Amino acid sequence: MIVERDITIAELAGLVEGKPLGDERKIVRGVQLPSGQRRDYVAVAWQKEDFHLVGEDVPVVVPEGWLTEGRTGIEVKDPQLAFAKILSFFSPKKDFSPGIHETAVVDVAAKVDPSASVGPYCVIKKDAEIGPGVVLESGVYVGESVKIGARTRIEHGVVLYDGTIVGEDCLIHAGSVIGCDGFGFLLNRAPKPIKIPQLGRVRIGNRVEIGACSTIDRATLDETVVGDDTVIDNHVHIGHNAKIGKGCVLVAMAGIAGSAVLEDGVVMAARSGVADHVRVGKGAVIAAHGGATKDVPPGKVYSGFPAREHDQEMKRQVIVGKLVELYPKLRKVLKSLDKEQEGAGESK
Question: InterPro entries, alphabetically (predicted)?
């Protein structure tokens, strides 16, 4: 939802660190797609085909050198970064009043900072610590000895199991579960698998964002760790004892098995996975649907299952694709060879 706010082109240029052109005093009140027609809304384009959709009388933010004389807009070095800043400016600002809602259940041994906001039907167990400016939206469960750092916001229905530590300035979206039992069982033990107790915890760093309905298991012993500035999409699972480095990106439905290690800056694309005890090196990328069953070197792009270097996987796929065309010819060659062998046998 866009919140309309008046700002001049000159002021907006200052916000996005760009150069205003044309009518610098023109007021805009919102942001729109390049195809939008509102003259009081700004559009942002960083591809030529999108720029051509923008009406001549619509103010626009574009890369440097794109605007012609007389056109009203802003030129910037990084239009995508400018777009993010503009969206933030016109985003609704939620107001969370400090205090504890009357329906919340807070143990007498819990510590809640006076500046924190605890929403309806939240539960906070004993020895939990809720830091300054923390926001717990409705229905959040905070287990025993949980610690939540300053200014972290936790959305509706999130569950933080006992002992979980969440850093400062984090955002955890609705329905996520942090610190539940790791999936540890002894298999092939008749008559059923034997459960291995999980006694560790989860530690989330600072400025981490976790998408809706994601799950992070607590360690068997010690900690499952998510490093500072990592972003996690919806429906991602991180297994027990896993170590996720700083600045990693985990896209929807990625799965990290127990005791796997992602070094700093790793990208896990949609529906990719890492097997247990596998290490993915710094800055490496596992492409969509890729499955890393062995260690991945730093900086490499791996794809396929089992995952291999991307260019090798592309060659493999090309060869496999050609086999469909080659198969009828191969059958003819094999039949011909069979006949030759039969003829050679009869001649003996």
Answer: Hexapep, Hexapep_transf_CS, LpxD, Trimer_LpxA-like_sf
